[in-house]
Amino acid sequence: MNNIKLTYFGHVKRHNTLEKLCMEGMVEGKRGRGHPKRRWSEDVAEWLKTPATRAGATAQDRRLFRSLVWKATSSPDPP
After folding, report:
1. Which domain of life is it from (predicted)?
2. Chain centroid to CA 13
3. Three-state SS for 47?
4. Residue 7 in contact with residue 13, Cβ under 8 Å?
5. Total-model pTM
6. Is the dihedral of CA 26, 7, 69, 10 positive or negative?
7. Dihedral angle over CA of 55, 57, 59, 61, nearest 10
8. In this predicted model, what pLDDT tens digit does every residue of 41-67 receive, in sequence order?
9. Among candidates 50, 49, 51, 68, which has minimal Cα distance to 10?
């Protein structure tokens, strides 16, 4: 499942579309009380073990991003 999410992240980051604006956009106003919501970019950064800004920049090079996704999803995490 992470493989699908990561490849979609790369697809969205490579194109200037409404999806990219929604993913990167910051909403005006205050957040509600309680635990902060987890963002998709935070999950991607955790899965790829790289900062979110670097993951977005790497997505521009499709071959490099695909190899990064393959490495992140092909090897199981150690217990």
Report:
1. Eukaryota
2. 9
3. helix
4. no
5. 0.61
6. negative
7. -140
8. 788 888 888 888 888 888 888 888 888
9. 68
